[in-house]
């Protein structure tokens, strides 16, 4: 991997949300215990989130012996609180991706993102993961009127990147979302949503059934990646492996500080409302997930008449309940007809966001792999990372090298957190200002159309009145005959 320059990040898609059914049953909990004995395996995965569990599942399916070490429990952080939107793409806009790696490599990377989405869909079935609650379709809406940009982006996605996508005009967007805040939209019919909490625990069950061993409450004290057999030390046991996969987030800790410091921690806060009844259906007809093009809001309907909404974010940890009022106000701002909604619960999770806006996937040194930086990337990206690393270790597949331009870049430490928070606040403010200006211009155009219609109507009515015909210019007006002389009644009388 080589060094990377900082680029603008695009919000897509991997937000946190509360899932009511994310706990594994007691039988599974008994099998996932602390590592209390020395172990020798082919692959040791550190971190039992989406990325680590996907590596474990794919490697176990290919016949490798796999151990997963998790300092707390499966899916305890952001991976267990996913909004659950699955669609192709990355956190980096396509135009920036092309500028960074070139058109052909950008096409290859985009193709991998589609394969990642297909991988999630293959795993997220009711047969494999009961209660996964799959729903179809995702809509990206614009806060400003950008019809020309929409057309060019549609052409690029459909023709050059082979992605099924539809452009929606303003009228159709507002027919599905009863708000004047949004303009054009891009609809992805093959995108889908799942219960993110169910999915991460379902992945753990699938990996266990494939032969992987998952150990919770087993933090890593130190690792020694030198030599053919790598050594991993935990508080109660030692482990040796031919390959180590670092699949943690910002909580990897002191032994893996170098990796943790390349990630900017971002806490995204999400809420689920109390049941809203028929008024929710009157405000929102679209049943898939909705995100705005600036990444400020991400929401969808759950349980029939509840609204799940992710919006505020910070670069430091805070009590989620502090943001209940902010989320309720945001919902009322976008959909005022819903009024004051009751917030049933608020959750958050920390995601690791990279400086360059792309995930970190690849080999740091012989036998030491990294699979991290999935903040704002989506479930599809962690899925393809698991496949690429497992297949490279066991099959020699080297497609992970497509991610080589996106190396580990220091995220700036505490200064980076402050800068990240300020950039986020500036971005949200800019989005609000641009949206307000777009809506003002829309109202001005509407008022001008009304005035023009009134002028036309006035002219039409004026055209039906009889008007005196004026002579053409240059011609003398005809002289009117003099009025007849008055007759004196005394004249003409006989004597």
Automatic annotation (TrEMBL):
| GO MF annotations, alphabetized | oxidoreductase activity
Q: Which residue intervals make up region (Disordered)? A: 1-25, 452-495
**Name recorded for this polypeptide:** Glycine/D-amino acid oxidase
Which species does the entry assign this protein to?
Answer: Bradyrhizobium canariense
Q: Where is the composition biased (Polar residues)?
A: 13-24
Q: What is the lineage of its organism?
A: Bacteria, Pseudomonadati, Pseudomonadota, Alphaproteobacteria, Hyphomicrobiales
The keyword Hydrolase appears for this protein: no
Keywords from the named record: Oxidoreductase
Question: At the top level of its lineage, which domain of life is listed?
Answer: Bacteria
Where composition is biased (Pro residues), the residues are 469-485
Cellular component terms per the entry's GO annotation? cytoplasm
Output the Pfam families linked to this UniProt entry: DAO
Cross-referenced SUPFAM superfamilies, in alphabetical order?
Answer: FAD/NAD(P)-binding domain
* Span of domain FAD dependent oxidoreductase: 42-391
Biased composition of type Basic residues is found at 1-11
């Amino acid at each position: 991997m080589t060094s990377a320059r900082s680029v603008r990040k695009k919000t897509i898609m991997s937000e946190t949300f509360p899932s009511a059914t994310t706990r594994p049953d007691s039988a599974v909990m008994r099998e996932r215990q602390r590592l209390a004995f020395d172990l020798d395996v082919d692959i040791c995965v550190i971190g039992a989130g989406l990325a680590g569990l996907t590596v474990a599942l794919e490697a176990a399916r290919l016949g490798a012996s796999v151990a997963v070490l998790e300092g707390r429990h499966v899916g305890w952080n952001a991976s267990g609180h996913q909004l659950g939107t699955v669609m192709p793409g990355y956190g980096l806009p396509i135009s920036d991706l092309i500028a960074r790696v070139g058109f052909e490599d950008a096409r290859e990377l985009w193709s991998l993102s589609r394969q990642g989405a297909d991988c999630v869909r293959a795993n997220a079935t009711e047969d494999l993961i009961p209660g996964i609650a799959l729903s179809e379709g995702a809509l990206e809406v614009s806060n400003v009127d950008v019809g020309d940009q929409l057309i060019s982006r549609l052409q690029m996605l459909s023709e050059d990147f082979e992605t099924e996508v539809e452009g929606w005009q303003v009228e159709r967007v507002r027919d599905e979302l009863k708000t004047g805040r949004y303009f054009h939209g891009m609809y992805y019919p093959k995108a889908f949503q799942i219960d993110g909490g169910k999915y991460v625990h379902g992945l753990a069950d699938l990996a266990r059934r494939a032969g992987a061993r998952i150990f919770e409450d087993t933090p890593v004290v130190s690792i020694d990646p030198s030599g053919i057999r790598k050594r991993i030390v935990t508080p109660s046991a030692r482990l040796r492996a031919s390959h180590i996969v670092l699949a943690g987030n910002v909580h990897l800790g002191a032994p893996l500080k170098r990796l943790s410091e390349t990630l900017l921690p971002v806490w995204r806060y999400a809420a689920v409302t109390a049941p809203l009844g028929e008024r929710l259906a009157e405000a929102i007809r679209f049943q898939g997930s909705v995100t705005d093009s600036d990444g400020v809001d991400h929401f969808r309907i759950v349980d029939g008449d509840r609204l799940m909404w992710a919006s505020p974010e910070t670069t430091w940890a805070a009590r989620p309940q502090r943001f209940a009022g902010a989320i309720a106000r945001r919902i009322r701002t976008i959909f005022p007809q819903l009024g004051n909604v009751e917030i049933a619960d608020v959750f958050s999770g920390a995601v690791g966001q990279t400086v360059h806006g792309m995930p970190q996937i690849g080999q740091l040194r012989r036998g030491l792999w990294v699979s991290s930086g999935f903040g704002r990337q989506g479930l599809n990206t962690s899925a393809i990372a698991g496949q690429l690393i497992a297949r490279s270790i066991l099959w020699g597949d080297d497609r992970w090298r497509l991610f080589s331009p996106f190396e580990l870049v220091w995220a700036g430490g505490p200064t980076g957190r402050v800068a990240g928070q300020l950039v986020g606040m500036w971005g949200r403010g800019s989005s609000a200002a641009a949206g307000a200006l777009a809506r003002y211009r829309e109202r001005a155009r509407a008022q001008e159309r009304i005035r023009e219609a009134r002028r036309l109507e006035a002219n039409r009515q004026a055209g039906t009145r009889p008007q005196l015909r004026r002579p053409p210019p240059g011609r003398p007006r005809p002289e009117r005959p003099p009025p007849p002389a008055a007759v004196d009644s005394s004249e003409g009388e006989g004597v």
